[in-house]
Amino acid sequence: MLGKKLVTAQKRGETRALCLGLGMVACSMMMYFFIGITIVPFYTNSVWTTETVCKVLKANIKDKVFCPNSKGSEDEENFPYPCLQVWVNLTASGQEVMLYQTEDTLEKNPKCSYVPDKLENSKEVKARIETIASNFKKYQTFPCYYDPGGTQTNVILSRLYPSKSLLFAFLWPTLMFTGGCLIIVLVKISQYVSVLSAWQ
């Protein structure tokens, strides 16, 4: 009687462990799919892939412009901000090009090197842009990214999704997938050992 209870408890434990392993594998596959349709396209579509050194030529703050955060938005003119324009000398080609913060900055407003958050206070935005401009004037040389194919003549300061971020995004689903497969394998080994011992 006691033996039957132990066998039943063992089967229940194996079933729960197997469900856990399968659940972890299923969740990891969903995470892979989510990363594949969100982060990977941004990474692969970016043409600014080669790192080089940029030297600041001028960093000027123009008059206030309106933030075109979203196309067709009715409240575009409700968010004016100072337009920072940074021109750099591209070491790789020796050209004078405009610098943008990220790929997204160019899409939001190609006239400005930096586009602030719409929710920020206007005084904070002005102070931040002035600080950024002074930092560019202070640190003349810094790494930047350019398009080796030549389709984009401008450069960006940092990529939205660099290689390290992409690898880090794939790290957690990979660990979950590995853990789930390991649990499944251990359960199958346990079942095989139980059947083998019972047969002997």
From TrEMBL:
Molecular functions per Gene Ontology: calcium-activated potassium channel activity; potassium channel regulator activity
One of the GO biological process terms: detection of calcium ion
Cellular location(s): Membrane
UniProt cross-references to Pfam families, sorted A to Z: CaKB
Principal location class: membrane
Signal peptide: none
Membrane-spanning residues: 20-43, 166-187
GO cellular component: voltage-gated potassium channel complex
Membrane topology: Multi-pass membrane protein
Keywords associated with the record: Glycoprotein, Ion channel, Ion transport, Membrane, Transmembrane, Transmembrane helix, Transport
PANTHER family: CALCIUM-ACTIVATED POTASSIUM CHANNEL SUBUNIT BETA, CALCIUM-ACTIVATED POTASSIUM CHANNEL SUBUNIT BETA-1
Annotated family: Belongs to the KCNMB (TC 8.A.14.1) family. KCNMB1 subfamily.
Protein name per UniProt: KCMB2 protein
Organism: Illadopsis cleaveri (blackcap illadopsis)
Lineage start: Eukaryota, Metazoa, Chordata, Craniata, Vertebrata
